Amino acid sequence: MTTPSETAFTIDTSSIKYGVGVTREVGYEINRMGAKRVMVITDPKLTDSDPVATVLESLRAAGVDAVLFDQVSVEPTDISMKQAIAFATAGNFDGYVAVGGGSSIDTAKTANLYATYPADFLAYVNAPIGEGRLVPGPLKPLIAIPTTTGTGSETTGVAIFDLLEMKAKTGIAHRALRPDMGLIDPENTRDLPGMVVACSGFDVLSHALESFTALPFHQRSAPEHPGARPLYQGSNPISDIWALKAAEMAAKYIVRAAQDPTDHEARGQMLLAATYAGIGFGNAGCHVPHGMSYAVSGMVKEFVAEGYPVNHPLVPHGMSVILNAPAVFRFTAPTNPQRHLQIAGVMGADIADATDEDAGEVLSGLLSKLIQTLGLPNGLGAVGYEPDDVTDLTTGTMPQQRVLSISPRPVTDRDIRQLFLDSLTIW
Ligand SMILES: [Zn+2]
Fold it and tell me: What's the whole-model pTM score?
């Protein structure tokens, strides 16, 4: 007997409030959700920042007891997650507010989960690395306030971190982790360095491209029961709308936003694009570029990216994703060339005379031009990887089945190896 195919998809998303100054409404919103004692989660670089000061002021003015936790690491690890969980458990909070990039938001999701439903750390972590246990029920209210223009984490039920002993990025994915609300405030991204805006902008773009080209949901097998339907379901008609619009906006504004910190319009539009892409990929999912990126950032050697306030080697998430993307889209285009052309078209490529055979080159060529324009390194070779590293990178990628399984083209160990080799140099 063959397993029946999937026949349904769901669209879940956080409430979104967008606009200049909405950070000041966090006290009103969390109060409305019934929280009286709130853990505010951020990273040390933001402790004295305007967004954090505004949040604390707004919470206190609303009569909420606010306690600051500012020990999030820029790329979270199991160790930094466990610190936040211990703080959350001891603090007896009935609500959470995350202020920062994906790291702070993902840390808040994890702290909320383990403080609400205590378990061994690997219990809820994605299989096969963890047990992949389902979240037992609803979590405490969580409001996410992004200060970067990239992750879209405010709309998704995914938390990503490095599991240090395995040198691998993994995560927890469940609908219950999704924040109740995202407060998207363009005032919070005004001071970001250009390279940070470029990398997080490429993350947005890749979220859109991957979710639009992902395996269609009806080509997965049906779940055994409704609760087991994966968060990443494959491309579907509603996610497609958000992904297409996000790709159009990101392609239109990424260069202006990265190159001119005073271009408030472009930075505001990138923040909005991140949220659009988050609604798309938060339901459809990402595939191979993200699957490969976890090994690229997890096995970093000495590379240090300009503009990032860290004192250790780091390949920023968006950079580790986009450097693989041109090779991946050349590889996946033959499975659905029209979709690859369609999304290249909304990004501004001239597709009038393009044939199916051109699809991979049209999309990947456009991406590699953008990567070059924004001054990113020319491939994985330029962030310190050599052909000899490809075996380890491949070993680190194959367990990422949650994302690899929704690749539009099945990927073997050999394919991943070849994609890494092809990504060592882009142009
Ligand atoms: Zn991403």
Answer: 0.92
